[in-house]
Amino acid sequence: MPKNSNPLVVIAAYDQLCTFEFGCAFEVFGLSRPEMGPGWYRCMTAAIEPGHIRAAGGLTVNSDGGLELFDQADTIVIPGWRAPDAAVPGPFLNALRKAHARGARLVSICGGAFVLAQTGLLSGRRATTHWHHARRLAAGYPEIDVEPHSLYVDEGDILTSAGSAAGLDLCIHIVRKDFGAKAANSVARRLVVAAHREGGQTQFIERPVAARGPTRLSALLDTIRGSLVQQWSVERMAEEACMSVRSLHRHIREATGTPPGEWLLNERLARARELLEETSLPVSVVATHIGLGSATNFRHHFRASAGLSPAAYRSRFRSAGIEQKSRTLDENEFEGCLVAVANPGFD
After folding, report:
1. Per-residue model confidence as pLDDT tens digits over 258-267
2. Each residue of 302-318: pLDDT tens digit?
3. What is the set of domains in the chain, with CATH numbers?
4. d(Cα 304, Cα 307) in Å, to the nearest integer?
5. What is the full DSSP assignment across 219-277?
6. Which helix (H) or strand (E) holds 283?
7. What is the DSSP string of 49-84?
8. β-strands 126-127, 145-146: how paired?
9. At what angle do helices 310-317 and 295-306 cross, to 10 degrees?
10. Alpha carbon distance, N-terminus to C-terminus of the chain
11. Is the pTM of this model over 0.85?
């Protein structure tokens, strides 16, 4: 949970403001959310320079104050920047350094990573930015460990996101860190986005990814999601969808951006995160329930995906009150947990 009962998020505003990136941050942290109770975020906008603040699309921004707001902020969000090679005003950089030194959390969306780079605070740390500019960030700041494929990178007190829409992923991740999985899921539902997106920067896909494939494929994917405990070989998937194995590969890759085996593993691990966050089920039961068989096999795949062991992930992201009460599995889920799955059937 945040240190303050009503943590203050300050969003930086600058001339030529990136409207979408600003909107991502405000949508998550700035909207009134009475369902979250009295401890939810406060949100303010800080002009980082004097004069008119014009945003993309011909909008004008009226800020709540200037750089003095950084002195109060628990979290400061930098929503993009004018250009990767655009100089950052010295007072802005100094205010960020000062805020970070006293314990404020710094967050950048998309090109905002170049602002953090100019502060020097990313030296020796991991970071990401829009894939189009990742090489430029790495070349200009070799002291930064740039991760070009990540949707976001969490270094604790400094967090960076990839291209524009990844800002939502990062902001929801911050809600999860501060208020738990249930709050993050609630915010994601209101935004009609996934609480956690699998994979890396989807901008690498050259053509738009179909939201739904052919009807048979859609039905198959829904069936698999509802019965992850079962063994799903590629041959079985193809048979269920009345397709050849080759056609199945093509359709699933077009619909999800990943081959069948990788998609299946992602779905299993996504379900595992939910169970770790929302229940106190033993890791061995979670492993069986998602179709990964043994706890050892589950731990291997989970750590490779999340960078944490299942136990460490649960400790960091479990919902409030889980220690006292586990979510009860329904009858079908319980019966599914009794099925031992030795081979998850990856291709």
Report:
1. 899 999 999 9
2. 999 888 899 988 887 76
3. 8-191 (3.40.50.880), 215-337 (1.10.10.60)
4. 6
5. HHHHHHHHTTTS---HHHHHHHHT--HHHHHHHHHHHHSS-HHHHHHHHHHHHHHHHHH
6. helix 283-289
7. SSS-EEETTTEEE--SB-GGGGGT-SEEEEE--S-T
8. parallel
9. 60
10. 41
11. no
